[in-house]
Amino acid sequence: MPQKTQPMDFRNKTFYYPLGIRSNNPLNIGTGGWQGEVGVANNPQHEAIFVDTQHGLRAAAVLLHNYYVKYDLNTIRGIISRWAPSDDPNANNDPNEYANFIARKTGIAADTPFVLNATNIKAIMKAMASFEQGLLYADLIPDSDYDEGIALANQQEYIDIAVKSGIGIGGFFLILWLGYVLLSKRN
Q1: If residue 38 lies in a helix (H) or strand (E), which one and from where to where?
Q2: If DSSP codes are grouped into helix, strand and coil, which group holds residue 49?
Q3: Alpha helices, DSSP H only, in the chain?
Q4: Domain ranges in the chain?
Q5: C-alpha torsion angle, residues 180, 182, 183, 187 (rounded to 10)
Q6: What number of other Cβ atoms are within 10 A of residue 158's Cβ?
Q7: Which of 55, 64, 38 is nearest to 118 (CA)?
Q8: What is the value of pTM for the model shown?
Q9: Which of 12, 94, 118, 137 could form a disulfide with 133 if both were Cys (CB 3.0 to 4.6 A apart)?
Q10: 167 burial class (0-12, 13-18, 19+ CB within 10 angstroms)?
């Protein structure tokens, strides 16, 4: 089993880093009581501040999963149109430019449905971090933080399933094991 790396924490780093990096929130997620959320940025978007980048990326993975599953947004353009809408009064968003950037970086066509799996989510999140923070700053985040953020999001999904179904701790571990098996097969 690979050794777990120490997550990045940019909260006390140089002022010259973009706010999303200094907040351990590379995809600029709004506040929402997220796991690992430790504060709120003093900006019009009220973006969350996370204890480390793994938790910021976990929140992004959960949102992307929700967009895909709950809102049936299974294309890059569909996701980005909701993520960064052109009518957001606190931002100057161009969803088409953003979606085309993500498509170029990931190799996933902007208007073609993609399969929801850890590989695609990671590629999309890395591209989104590059767009949101700039490539120079997004490259400061190690791949292991993306992997762990996705793993943390998956664990929460399994816990939610166990709680909602009332299957108990044994059932929870069965679901966790099945999720591990399925994820390892999808990657």
Answers
A1: strand 37-40
A2: strand
A3: 19-22, 53-70, 76-83, 95-106, 118-133, 135-138, 143-165, 168-186
A4: 55-186
A5: 140
A6: 18
A7: 64
A8: 0.78
A9: 137
A10: middle
